[in-house]
Design a protein that fits this description.
The chain has helices at about 5-25, 25-35, 40-60, 65-85, 90-105, 105-125, 130. By secondary structure, the chain is an all-alpha fold.
């Protein structure tokens, strides 16, 4: 496994860990989710992490199961991140204030989705097209 694949695995484990936190420590998960774009610094850190994760998905996708799906997913993250970098961070903060409350209301569903995506990414990293056929 190379460094970029390691970033993809770390992202998948983060999603699974977020899901576990949502179910086991909901107040901690709520504080974490409510902190998105809280400051300019947080906004830029989030975007840097998104660029690293998205770029890692794009580059690593050729070694993953369903490479086109993960290449598209990676480019989606990269392009939306570039869009977020082109707007004032306060707009991102306002967007987060609008999006986070429904996520928190449906946090168990969000947690299930995060776990499912994380596990799917892990499966895809450790499975090749030939080993599935």
């Amino acid at each position: 496994m190379n460094l970029l694949s390691g970033v993809v695995v770390a992202f998948a484990l983060f999603l699974v860990g977020l899901a576990v936190t949502i179910y086991t420590r909901p107040s901690l998960a709520e504080r974490f989710l409510s902190a998105f774009a809280r400051s300019a610094r947080a906004h830029y850190i989030e975007q840097a992490v998104r660029l690293v994760v998205g770029g890692s998905l794009v580059v690593s996708s050729s070694e993953m199961w369903q490479p086109e799906l993960f290449r598209l997913f990676g480019w989606t993250i990269v392009l939306t991140t570039i869009g977020l970098l082109c707007i004032p961070w306060r707009w991102h903060h306002r967007f987060a204030q609008w999006v986070v409350p429904p996520v928190l209301r449906h946090r168990k569903l969000y947690g299930f989705g995060a776990a499912a995506l994380g596990l799917f990414i892990l499966f895809s990293v450790f499975t090749t097209e030939t080993s599935v056929n």
